[in-house]
Amino acid sequence: MKTVRIAINGFGRIGRNAFKILESSKDVDIVAINDLTAPATLAHLLKYDSIFGKFEGTVDTKEQSIFVNGKEYKIYAEKDPSVLPWKELDIDIVLECTGKFRSRDGMMKHIEAGAKKVILSAPASKGEDVDITVVLGVNDDKITKDHILISNASCTTNCLAPVVKVLHDNFGIEYGFMNTIHAYTNDQIILDSPHKDLRRARAAAMSIIPTSTGAAKAIGLVIPELAGKLNGSSMRVPVPDGSVVDFYALLKKDTSVKEINAIMKNYAEGSLKGILEYCEDPIVSSDIIGNPHSSILDAELTNISEKRFVRIVSWYDNEFGYSNRLAEIAIKVGKIE
After folding, report:
1. 74, 96, 175, 185: which one has the fewest Cβ atoms less than 10 Å from its Cβ?
2. pTM: predicted TM-score of the whole model, two decimal places
């Protein structure tokens, strides 16, 4: 099987993390990067990271290329993806990590440029803008060779969906509500400044900031029988990484904390190994930074009322965990004949 040739569009937090994960992979070959930032700046941000520390390999730059562990990666700086040389470079998959091309028309610019497939590191603008929205461990078995535009959903949906799957498979879910207590992101600002979301217009590191999220509603895209049955909200908090989902659901069958935790542990050690982690330690958000799992179940916080109304708490590294799934989906899609 030939090595999958990958290009990364957008070398921000997710793009750089995905690069670090895939750079040493034997399954893929990162061929090119497109970002409007100067190569020297990209190289510096790859080498030094305020959250994850210094990159262990070598990073250098020369003209329009960066060199990582001696290998050259050509840097392009095109605002319009349709003019990128993806055909000439024989690109199999573009990882669309800018956050700006979430519509079908936007993603199709990469296809027009000659790429064979696009994997979006975000939810699509609308569910129908992609051929499939995927959460590894939940519905990745539905990916086919005919899927050209693929969304990796959001980091929060990747945390919530495995937990929802376990509950729904074993007890059935009538309805549920999620709140994510989420680290601040680059969509927010350091000091008060205009923003279309007036709460996000406030200084990210100074307040708990309520905002919206589509993560719970997106569960219907990966578990169709739950479409319209889940909703959610978000609180952005003054930490740079490390988030947690607080999920409440009414189940169709009676259960107990002991039974739920036992089932979660079985899935974490079985079919969801590498996706769901089971944890009995009294952890805090900083403890899961750098954890590659999508969802780290906090067993100590599982609770229940009247045998059917349950509370599940699950942590996630909203950058590194998500980037691992993005990398794994790229490898999986590349292997589908």
Report:
1. 175
2. 0.96
